[in-house]
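1st attempt posting a full record on here, be nice pls
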Amino acid sequence: MTAPQRQPGRLGRALIRMLMKQAGIAAAEDVAPGFRLLTLESPEFKGIAWTPGQKVQIAMGSAFVARTFTPIEWDAAAGRTRILGYTHGAEPGSDWIRQAAPGNGCHVFGPRASLDAAGLAGTPVLFGDETSIGLAYALAATEAGRALQCVLEVNGLADTLSALSQIRLGNTELFERKNGDVHLDDIERRLPPLAASGAAFILTGKASSIQRVKRCLNALNVPSARILSKAYWTLGKTGLD
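the predicted structure (as tokens):
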């Protein structure tokens, strides 16, 4: 059973009014087990310049507790954005995604800078996991990202494939997580030809996996100018970003 969401106190309410935008959930769609596509609307979203890779933070019942999401698209004319949420474990962000329903309200901070891939030279290769799919979709929709390749470590191949199919994101290789992270051995074997081709690498998702892939790229003498990284989560910590 999920605990009811905590209501903000007086200070929290004041900060929410000053810093956050009031939005409503217009649609909530189960696209695959563990994945939900949420549409948020707000008059305050209108006219906002958004760059793929920017993040929003949504209050979890308090201005001091928020979770970060990467919008997959932003319609500044309609005042609408969409996020693909992934539920992993029992924590505030996953609980909010599960409970989100049309008509519910929420408070949104952003969009603001998180990961800017615009300056990378070379064919983009995104490494990550289920939490990286929103970024992958947003980047793939840009002119520079049309050739984007994705390499993702995931908990369930079938569920992730279903989610990718529903949002029509292709050119993605999936590697199912294994005990001891031995699946990363297979991912490392994919890196030499990509590095030799001059690809630019965008590393996201789990912090320890990013560190391992980055060490491999360094050993392959990939210049730091061709590597961009942003950890979204790590074991034992919440609200990493």
